Amino acid sequence: MTQTLSPYSNARFIAVRLLPGEDVLLTLRKQIALHGFQAAFIAGCVGSLTNVALRFAGQEDTNHTCGKFEIVSLIGTLEASGEHLHMSVSDENGQMHGGHMMPGCSVRTTLELVIGELENIAFTREPCALSGYEELVVISR
């Protein structure tokens, strides 16, 4: 579906601190629902994890790892019907791991998040014949 959308949108932001033991994905989903976000994105993130759950490129299974990890990057889109998040973490030796963020990532000491929302558009997800996955669709509000 081809639709002409304005490339401009105002944005609003919230800042949230997650505490030790909190599940990152569950907390993100609660924040999206609480604030009624329809076209949200990760604007900034810094923190640490004890449990990391990533799905690596081209893989079906989730890789679960426990230890001490620093979040190097968290980026993606979120809305009430889903999310698409990619994360990179470094372990105690500085080794990097990254992939699609899955449920089961828990905060070690803190996780500071800034979540933005584009106010003039909404995100939905629809099946895509090319990828075989539900993919992002951007619509005007």
Which properties best describe this structure?
single chain, 141 residues, mainly beta, 60s Ribosomal Protein L30, Chain: A, six-stranded antiparallel sheet, two-stranded antiparallel sheet, 1 helix, globular
Task: Please render the helix and strand layout as text.
Elements: E1 11-18, H1 24-35, E2 40-55, E3 63-79, E4 82-90, E5 96-101, E6 106-118, E7 121-127, E8 134-140
Antiparallel strand pairs: 1-6, 2-3, 2-5, 2-6, 3-4, 4-5, 7-8
Tell me about this structure.
The chain is mostly beta strands and 141 residues long. The chain has a single domain (15-140), classed as 60s Ribosomal Protein L30, Chain: A (2-Layer Sandwich), CATH 3.30.1330. The chain has 1 helix and 8 strands. The protein has one helix at 24-35; strands spanning 11-18, 40-55, 63-79, 82-90, 96-101, 106-118, 121-127, 134-140.
Q: Look at the structure and give the mean pLDDT.
A: 94
Number of strands: 8
Mind telling me the C-alpha Rg? 16 Å
Taken together, the total number of domains comes to 1
- Proportion of residues in helical segments: under 10%
Question: What is the CATH C-level name?
Answer: Alpha Beta
Kindly summarize this structure in a few lines.
The protein has 141 residues and is mostly beta strands. The protein contains one helix and eight strands; from the N terminus they run βαβββββββ.
